[in-house]
Design goal:
Elements: E1 2-5, E2 8-13, H1 16-24, E3 28-29, H2 32-36, H3 47-50, H4 60-69, H5 74-93, E4 98-102, H6 103-108, H7 110-120, H8 127-137, H9 143-166, H10 172-181, H11 188-218, H12 221-229, H13 234-244, E5 254-256, E6 260-262, E7 265-267, E8 272-275, H14 277-280, H15 315-332, E9 337-338, E10 360-364
Parallel strand pairs: 2-8
Antiparallel strand pairs: 1-2, 3-5, 4-10, 5-8, 6-7, 9-10
Helix pairs in contact: 5-7, 5-15, 7-11, 8-9, 9-11, 11-15
Protein name: Cytochrome P450
Family: Belongs to the cytochrome P450 family.
Pfam families: p450 (PF00067)
Length: about 375
């Protein structure tokens, strides 16, 4: 799909095959700074946000990603599972034995925030403010809020890095500081940028996925009951839930560095290209009856975590958090049900990510 305003043409990719091609095509650059360098943009994003690892190409992207990849391998995440389970249990301990709960505020948001902040070494007292800044970074239609939040969270992270240099610890941020101050090629701006990116991306997608997945399951009580009776089915159901409720609706900015063809459409060099991940994951040419959540479907190959060199580095962590959270909810609250009709669930007015703003449910503990 092509759209154009004020003489500028951009392209929207909605089909699965075309989206997969676009996400893996090196002719589609993510170097946002290079694209907007001569455009006279009025945006005032902090450089640590504007020039993050997500907004860069190889070799810079390769160098930065290598510094954090080992933290999010399946093996490394397996070592975190007891902590994730502990945080989940502590949050569910605060739910009433019976009554109304907001799954987003009381589980889906604080769980991944707590985990990524603990992993990075963000003090507990600072986490609510970090959460607010993160929400502002995704505030659709409010560029001034996004820009302001980018400066505030970058300033906070700069200060935290300075504190950690004085009082080193053993968190991921401490290891990145050692890489910066040691032999690794990592600038101070890149250090701040990596820390901000991991902090924000490390919880936003999981929050949205948990809310969307549980909302879908609550509308299919037979499937929810099947998972409750056999929780070992949960890991295998995650791919279909991710496909059906993609937490990232649109991939981050890309543009063509040379002419290319996508789906039979010729795209010139220098054109912005948006990849609609949510739409691609519901392409009927790839997934039959795509709007139906079918836990028996083989949903491997979904694009919820992206594809290619920019595939979400934190995917194993997101999967572990979702699995353990769903298992725990089903075990403790077998009678969980929606407190409002599905059409009354409010969705977040955000850009890029997609998920419920609130998810009111009625619960009763197992007896």
């Amino acid at each position: 799909m092509r759209s154009g305003t004020s003489g500028h043409t951009s392209y929207l990719v909605t089909g699965y095959a075309e989206a997969r091609q676009a996400l893996g095509d090196p002719r589609l650059s993510k170097d946002t700074a290079a694209f907007f360098a001569d455009k006279g943009s009025r945006r005032r994003l902090h450089p640590a946000v504007a020039r993050s690892m997500l907004a860069s190409d190889p070799p810079r992207h390769t160098r930065l990603r290598k510094l954090v990849t080992k933290t999010f391998t399946t093996g490394a995440v397996d070592a975190l599972r007891p902590f994730i389970a502990q945080v989940t249990a502590a949050l569910l301990d605060q739910w009433p034995a019976s009554g109304r709960v907001d799954v987003i505020a009381d589980l889906a948001m604080p769980l991944p925030v707590t985990v990524i902040c603990e992993l990075l070494g963000v003090p507990e007292a600072d986490r609510p403010q970090v959460q607010r800044w993160s929400a502002d970074l995704f505030a659709a239609g409010h560029p001034e809020r996004i820009d302001a939040a980018s400066h505030e969270i970058a300033a906070y992270m700069t200060g935290l890095i300075a504190e950690k240099r004085d009082r080193p610890g053993d968190a991921l941020l401490d290891h990145l500081i050692l890489a910066r101050d040691g032999a690794e090629q990592l600038s101070e701006e890149e250090l701040v940028s990596l820390a901000v990116l991991l902090l924000v991306a490390g919880h936003e997608t999981t929050t949205n996925f948990l809310g969307s997945a549980l909302l879908a399951l609550l509308q299919q009580p037979a499937d929810l009951e099947r998972l409750r009776r056999d929780p070992d089915l949960v890991p295998g159901a995650l791919d279909e839930m991710l496909r059906h409720a993609s937490p990232v609706s649109t991939a981050t900015f890309r543009y063509t560095t040379e002419p290319l063809a996508l789906g039979g459409v010729e795209i010139p060099a220098g054109a912005p290209v948006a990849v609609a991940i949510g739409s691609a994951n519901r392409d009927p040419e790839r997934f039959a009856s795509p709007d139906r959540l079918d836990l028996g479907r083989n949903a491997g190959g979904h694009l919820a975590f992206g594809h290619g060199i920019h595939r979400c580095v934190g995917a194993p962590l997101a999967r572990a958090e979702a699995e353990l959270a769903l298992r725990a909810v089903f075990a403790r609250f077998p009678e969980i049900r929606l407190a409002v009709p599905p059409e009354q669930v409010a969705w977040r007015p955000t850009r890029l990510v997609h998920g419920p703003a609130t998810l009111p449910v009625l619960v009763q503990t197992a007896t």
